[in-house]
Design goal:
By secondary structure, the protein is an alpha/beta fold. The protein has 17 helices and 11 strands. The chain has 4 domains: 123 residues, TIM Barrel (Alpha-Beta Barrel); 85 residues, no CATH class; 93 residues, Methyltransferase, Methionine Synthase (B12-binding Domains), Chain A, domain 1 (Orthogonal Bundle); 107 residues, Rossmann fold (3-Layer(aba) Sandwich).
Length: 452
């Protein structure tokens, strides 16, 4: 019920009233899911029996957490509690257990919540991304589950299982195997329930032995090269020949543009600086290399990833090639930049409540390469901070980013505050959850002065 253009409360009430009119369906427990607590409460009022709320957290502090929990208890529902506090989502074993323990004490000691009605979600994140910090995500969830079930009596543990395999989007055999392997170990640790498509779940004992072993290497972080080995095997399950293109030197005979494209798509860093230098020598200015062959190659990467022909760890390798190429060009661009005036000053921020910043960071790099001065406020940025810096730095444009649906409401709030403060700085909206329609219908009316 979190579609940006939907009247969520009305839709929730209408749907649950229809459910209540069917006796066979009304007996089934209902999970009420929304990022807006007003929508959740509207749903709870319509339930005939036991409900489950998804979800509450300490993201906005203890006071709101307690208030929401008290309302859930009043309606007699169980509750999913996310491992999320004022600092953001828990992504390590220590943070997961600390936040869940803190929430448990508040719910049982202050709110008087029945512990058997508490369902903790310690956050399942994607593994096999090619990023070292992500390698232990599976182990951390499993171990956090073990600690939670041992130290917090009577509670349940759940999680969104499909997040784990996002790196292999488009390769269902590998994703199904990863889910089965993960659940096999997580259930042994005490996991009670999970969000997973049961119709796309491989039987643990029937998974191809080689695939199962490599999935366990990844999920349990047993080898340094586990991601590379699983990526290589994944190609076989997609019917690819599985040959190692990097060792085939024939691509070196192509034009410099094609060589750079190949290096980006295949994550080959060996010849990047030499090829970038050749391209720079042929270009009018260093930035032309980025806007030309490098961006062309990254567009190919984006198309392949979008159609499921590349996986996230391969995209990470492509990003490393791009980063190395840009780093080589930076001294030349700085020298070129000193000869030209700045194109403007831009403030970028991921809004409060959102910890995602990959897209924002890419935009920042591109703008910086185009001679803009970029002020990046990072993630979880309060509205007051955005206004303060925008005024102090006299920025020419404000860019707001967000990936999750609740960010849409925060963007609307920031826009209204910009209007109230009398600013007229153009506002740029971006992120996976945003759209032209939502921006036009919901955000634009709040900030008439800032139309670009």
């Amino acid at each position: 019920m979190d579609e940006g253009l939907l009247d969520s409360e009305r839709a929730m009430v209408e749907f649950l009233n229809l459910v209540a009119a069917e006796p066979d369906i009304a007996r089934v427990p209902v999970m009420v899911d929304s990022s807006k607590f007003a929508v959740i409460e509207a749903g709870l009022k319509c339930l005939q029996g036991k409900g489950v709320v998804n979800s509450i957290s300490m993201k906005e502090g203890e006071e709101k957490f307690i208030a929401d929990a008290q309302k859930v208890r009043r309606y007699g529902a169980a509750v999913v509690v996310m491992a999320f506090d004022e600092k953001g989502q828990a992504d390590t074993l220590k943070r997961k257990t600390e936040i869940c323990t803190r929430a448990y004490k508040i719910l049982t000691d202050i709110v008087g919540f029945p512990p058997q009605d508490i369902i903790f979600d310690p956050n399942i994140f994607a593994v096999a991304t090619g990023i070292e910090e992500h390698e232990n995500y599976g182990v951390d969830f499993i171990e956090a589950t073990r600690v939670i079930k041992r130290d917090l009596p009577h509670v349940h543990v759940s999680g969104g299982v499909s997040n784990l395999s996002f790196s292999f989007r488009g390769n269902e055999p590998v994703r199904e195997a990863m889910h089965s392997v993960f659940l096999y170990h997580a259930i042994q640790a005490g996991m009670d329930m999970g969000i997973v498509n049961a119709g796309q779940l491989a039987v643990y004992g029937e998974i191809d032995p080689e695939l199962r072993e490599l999935c366990e290497d990844v999920v349990l972080n047993r080898r340094k090269d586990s991601t590379e080995r699983l990526v290589e095997l994944a190609e076989k399950f997609k019917g690819a020949a599985g040959k190692t293109q990097e060792k085939d030197a024939a691509w070196r005979d192509n034009t410099v543009e094609k060589r750079l494209e190949y290096a980006l798509v295949n994550g080959v860093t060996d010849y990047v600086e030499a090829d970038v230098e050749e391209a720079r020598q042929r270009s009018t200015r260093p930035l032309d290399v980025i806007e030309g062959p490098l961006m062309t190659g990254m567009n190919v990467v984006g198309d392949l990833f979008g159609t499921g022909k590349m996986f996230l760890p391969q995209v990470v390798k492509s990003a490393r090639v791009m980063k190395q190429a840009v780093a080589y060009l930076m001294p030349f661009m700085e020298a070129d930049k000193s000869e030209r005036s700045t194109a403007g000053k831009i403030l970028l921020a991921t809004v409060k409540g959102d910890v995602h910043d990959i897209g924002k960071n890419i935009v920042g790099v591109v703008l910086g390469c185009n001679n803009f001065e970029v002020i990046d406020l990072g993630v979880m940025t309060p509205c007051a901070k955005i206004l303060e810096v925008a005024k102090k730095e006299k920025v020419d444009l404000i860019g707001l980013s967000g990936l999750i649906t609740p960010s849409l409401d925060e963007m609307c709030f920031v826009a209204s505050e910009l209007e109230r403060e009398g600013l007229d700085t153009p506002l740029l909206i971006g992120g996976a959850t945003t759209s032209r329609v939502h921006t036009a219908v919901k955000i634009n009316p709040n900030y008439r002065r800032g139309q670009a």
